[in-house]
Amino acid sequence: MSDVVIEVSRVKRTYKTEIGYIKKKRKEVDALKGISFTVKKGEIFGLLGPNGAGKTTMIKILTTMLTPTSGKVSVLGLNPVTETKLLRPHINFILGGERNLYWRLSAYDNLAYFSDLYKIPLSEQKERINELLELVGLKEVAHQRVETFSKGMKQRLQIARGLVNNPEILFLDEPSIGLDPVSARKLRDIIRQLNNNGTTILLTTHYMFEADELCDRIAFIDKGEIVDIDSPQNIKQKTDNVSVIDFTIIGGNDMKINQLSSLPGVQHVQTKNEDILTSIKLHTNNPQTVVPLIYETMQEVVIQDLSITKPTLEDVYVQLIGGKVS
Ligand code: ATP
User: Hey, which of 58, 268, 270, 275 has its CA 20 to 30 A from 196?
Assistant: First the structure.
C-alpha cells in the first residue's frame, strides 16, 4: 500500500472578484498556478511562502472548504470535492487567527461541544477530552472559562479542538502566530508529540526556524508556484559553500547599494531600511574577495557590524523568494 496520504497534482485556483464601487471591474487572481506535491504518512510537511503565496488556499482545498479550478487532489485516497463526507471524519484543521472557540464555555465544554459535532460517542468523550487537555497542558484549568485564558492557552485549546476526532491528518495554518517564544515552544513540543503518535501534519508558517525545527520536508511557495521542495537539511546544503556577509550602512544611496549586486562573486543582495540605517545581506561563495570590494564600493559610507556567517533557512528562503524586504 502506498504511504502517500496527500497527493496534489497540477492544482490551479483562480479567484474571480469585482473591484470598485461605482464602476465595477472584474478581477481574476491566480492564487495557485498548477501546484504538485505529495505528503507521506507520518510526515510533518511545511508550506512556506510570503503573504499571498497561496498557502491558505491550498489548505482550504485539502480540507474540503474550497474547490480547485483545475487539477487533481487526493487526501487519504479520497477526493475532497466529491467525497467530502467520507473524508471529514478523518482530518481536522486549525486555521490561523480563527476564533473557533466559545469564550463563555470552559475548555472542557468547548471540547465536548466539538466532540458532539463529530458524533464522538458520549461514552468515549470524557476519557478522550481529559487526554487532550493533558496533552495540551490545560487539565488544571479544564473547567475555567476560555475568556480567562491567555492567547497561548487558547491556541493550545484550538489544537485540542482539532484533535477531538483523532484525525489522521491535522492541518495547521500558522499555528504559532502571535505567541510569545515560550508558548510557541510549548506548541512545537505538542506538534512533535502528536506526530510521534502517528498524526501526519501539514502546517504553514512564516517562522523559518520553526519549519527548520519541525518539518521533515518543506515546500516553498511563491505567487502560486512551488519554487523548491525538500528537507530543511537538503535545502540548506544547496547553499553549503555560500556565506552570508551581513552589515549595516549609514546614509548609503540606492545607486551604491545597487552596485553591490554587480560585484563579482555576489549571488544575491537583500536590503532592509530602518530610518537612515540600511541592513544588507550579501550571499557569496567568495567572502574574502567580496569584503574588500564592499569597502571600495561603499567609500564615504559608514559600514557597521560586518560579519560573515553561514546561511540560515531564512536566508535560503529569501534567496529563493526574492530580495528586498522592508
Ligand atoms: P498569508 O501568508 O498572507 O496568509 P497565503 O499564502 O495564505 O497568504 P492566500 O490567502 O492563499 O495566501 O491567498 C493567495 C492569493 O489569493 C492572494 O493574492 C489573495 O489576495 C487571493 N485571495 C485569497 N482569497 C481570496 C478570495 N476569497 N477572493 C479573492 N482573492 C482571494
Answer: 58
219 Cβ inside 6 Å of ligand 1: no
- CB of 29 closer than 6 angstroms to any ligand 1 atom: yes
Q: pLDDT-based confidence at 326, cuts 50/70/90?
A: very low
Predicted TM-score (pTM) of the model is 0.82
- What integer best gives the mean pLDDT of the chain? 89
Q: Evaluate if residue 156 carries a pLDDT over 80.
A: yes
Hey, what amino acid is at 286?
Answer: N
Going by alpha carbons, the residue nearest to atom 4 of ligand 1 is: 51
Mutate to test the pocket of ligand 1, among 15, 28, 65, 208 (most ligand atoms within 8 A of CB): 15
Distances (CA, A) of 33 to 27, 79, 198, 226: 16, 20, 32, 9
